[in-house]
Design goal:
By secondary structure, the protein is α+β, with helices and mostly antiparallel strands. Helices cover 46% and strands 18% of the residues. It is built from eight helices and five strands, in the order ααααααββαβαββ. It has a five-stranded mixed sheet with strand order 2-1-3-4-5, with helices on both faces. α5 (48-71) runs antiparallel to α6 (78-89) and α7 packs across α8. It starts with a helix and ends in a 7-residue tail after the last strand. 33% of the residues are buried.
Amino acid sequence: ILELVLFRSVPRRDTKPIAKAMMAAFGSFSGAVAAPAARLREISGVGERVISDLRLIKAAAERFAHHELVARPTLSSTDAVARYYKTVLRAADREEFHLCFLGKKNQLLGTERAGIGTVDHAPVYPREVLTRALHHNASAVVLVHNHPSGDPTPSRADVLLTRKIVEALAPVSIAVHDHIIIAGDSYLSLRGEGYL
């Protein structure tokens, strides 16, 4: 598939060596599609047209995943949320913190990125989560963030932040259904692990 995409992006050139170099560098088609532009430029034969076409493919994949999330009348599983965010956060090289806002019957009301941080921390404030949840008239939220390290194990700070957000939302009867940590193709549910 990557070779076919490159054939369209790099006309009149043998794209097999470029595709092989990209697979070696990024490990998979999805890894190549989600790779940062600066890393893509390091591959001989990759120019702005290739990067632009890969960004288009990534945007299309995110739309498909988001549609799957939104199309469900209710969110009944952590897997549905995790599948969407694995697509969105697959190649993020910094931690990002996202929020899913749910209605009374667990229907998705909206999603937002609450913060972008460093390789091992994304600042998020319970007061801001509360403000955004009230803005969406949410009955519940699902917290999501990524670990660029590839290890979904929650840090002590992750657990403490989750508890602070639960405490901030409790007085207005907004539940925190879960806090999901995305790490590449894997994820961890803090509720599933007994932290919530």
